[in-house]
Amino acid sequence: MAIPREIGRNQRSLGYFLQCNSDSDCPSWSCYASATLRLKSQKEGGNDCEKTISHVFYPKENDWGYSCFLRWEDVMEPEHGYLKDDTLILEVHLVADAPHGVQWDSKKHTGYIGLKNQGATCYMNSLLQTLFFTNKLRKAVYQISTEQDDPHKSVALAMQRVFYELQFSDKPVGTKKLTRSFGWDAFDSFLQHDVQELCRVLLDNLESKMKDTPVNGVIPQLFEGKMKSYVRCKKVPFESNREEAFYDIQLNVKGKQTLRIFQRLRGSGDARRG
Question: What is a single cellular component term in the Gene Ontology annotation (predicted)?
């Protein structure tokens, strides 16, 4: 919202504000946002005028900004190049949190939905979202034949349900049928399990269900790596080695600014005598 304002006797300014309006009639909504308000220079090599704001918007304070963003004479000054052909160009770069006190429609505003937390299943939800957004895996899971499976014990069928609802539902997706297919009861859902072990169990189960199907081998194609262990003699031309497949690796990231996976995989040899 930009308007000319009187700021004193015979003085005017450009008022520049960000306004936040809720779709809800709820009187207790609020939304935190920070933004950069910018008046663009239309002159080649000209400098834009910009200022930042941070504010919690709510019904009684649903706009925030500057009554005097820029003096009117500066707006009109040809040297600045803000006005061209009777036109000003205003830009807003905005970062906002999800609003509080309203029925937040994640699908409407982001295009995606989340997973319900059963108590301590946030680690599992993160894993499921990661697997869901692995497009080739999701398509392969849909192609698994589950018509003859026990609906209470089939991990593959439960994964198909979760993936389908994440893709097409408008509301957060429950995971109780999936955890029930693991053999978990309500108490297990309140225990923090190892996410690496859960990933292995899920992938192993899906891989076995994909055998002898058109999607056989998809999981190794996506997740499998090779590790080679070897013993090399220093004084004679002899080397013995063993190659192993893996689906995950452990990285010591504490105190590290970046993940140098290549160096970690490459490793360093240990000298041995014997």
Answer: nucleus
* Local confidence band at 82 (pLDDT 50, 70, 90 cut-offs): very high
* 144 inside domain: yes
Tell me the per-residue pLDDT of 42-59, one tens digit each, with 9 for 90 and over. Answer: 999 999 999 999 999 988
In a domain, 271, yes or no: no
Asked, for residue 124, whether it belongs to a domain, the answer is yes
Domain membership of residue 186 (yes or no) is yes
Q: How far is CA 235 from CA 206, 231, 239, 268, 270, in A?
A: 47, 12, 11, 19, 16
Q: What is the CATH number of the domain that holds 34?
A: 2.60.210.10
pTM recorded for the entire structure: 0.62
129/147 Cα distance (integer angstroms)? 25
